[in-house]
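Notes taken during the Thursday session

The instructor put the following on the board and asked us to keep it in front of us for the whole hour. The protein is Branched-chain-amino-acid aminotransferase. We were told not to look anything up and to reason only from what is written here. First, the residues (427 in total):
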Amino acid sequence: MLRPALFSAAALGRSLLSSSSALGTCAALTAAVPRWFSAQPSPEEGDRTADAQYTFRARDLLIERSPVQQPPINLEDLKFGTVFTDHMFHVEHVVGQGWGRPAVKPFGLLQVHPAAQVLHYGLCCFEGMKAYAGVDGRTRLFRPELNMARLRRSARRLQLADFDPQELLACLKQLLMVDRSWLPEREGYSIYVRPFIFSSASALGVAKPARSTISILLSPVGPYFPTGLKPISLFVDELNRRAWPGGVGDCKVGGNYAPTIQPQVEAAQRYGTSQVLYTFRESHEHPDHGEFEECGAMNMFFYMEQRDGRRVLATPALTGTILPGVTRDSVLQLASGWGECEVQERPITIAEVRQASEEGRLLEIFGSGTACIVQPVGSLIRANGEVYRTRFSPDDDPAGSLSSRLQRALLDIQYGRVEHPWGVALD
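Then, after some discussion, the predicted structure tokens were revealed:
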């Protein structure tokens, strides 16, 4: 099976952050359409037209505070992604005019034309991030520059308006400070941050968007899986495909997620599983040659013991059909640094996992993602009735399992118990 070359999330983030090259001169544009903010450089900046033409500026951020504050939230009844803070971020781009003034404004409905391209052709992409209340009282983000870079790459794939990821990150930080009182100060809780960009152009046609909108929502949340570190079961989907080579599986676009709802609902009804683990194989290949890819919301890791006694932590390689997760990259770096096992990014087949399970060498399976951080998986269920179980789980040794230790290491960084460059403090 031919697959494209491999990239790490860290390398991807670095390359994207350094790729804000000029798109051409905007002198004619600024002369025809006067701008007093963002898209027009200030005199003291000198000649920065090539850089200023495609982005808004955090220094221009307008903050309009909500006259109404919602009552305090009850953390015990908090359902993931259903409660939102008092404010949101909003900025729009129009071809021929550039970016408007970025704003933090009271939370409210977005107005879009019934013919907006996002409604008809799915022209949207988004990110998932979290803000944490540190033990020292400071608000922290976790490696936010990678999320901003990935959002920009996803937007470019859809030909949405370009922007400077550092400027958007600076705007996000100010939004978080405005709604700082919403940040739960309890272990396992955070503010889920949802930046998204979509085509608000009102045109029934599959074409490059003439208008783009960026918004950011904040939602206080608890654990993504109510079971916490209790292992879940996954259904191995060998029929449906989450993504295809040459598609957008490596971008966080809305079209990747809507088609996964039906397989997930059917798997829950038939097998009682929490999510679906997708596979990939060519049509002429034996089903056991299918390669594991990812769940709709998690990258996957397999901790196995080789027949010679070596232990490996393997995750599917980034071949263009898998999202380069920020938490995925963090797990790889942490595990590599610990030096307890060989860390591999490579194809992992159903046959390999079945054999490891049958021989007691399948030590652990877990997923990683912003929402769940690290989620243990106790078993994989196939439609043919086969079930592959792990040898260990956090229930057996809560302190010693690899997934538990990785979860704890990440939480220590996110909540500021350990000083680390991945934990970006806002105040």
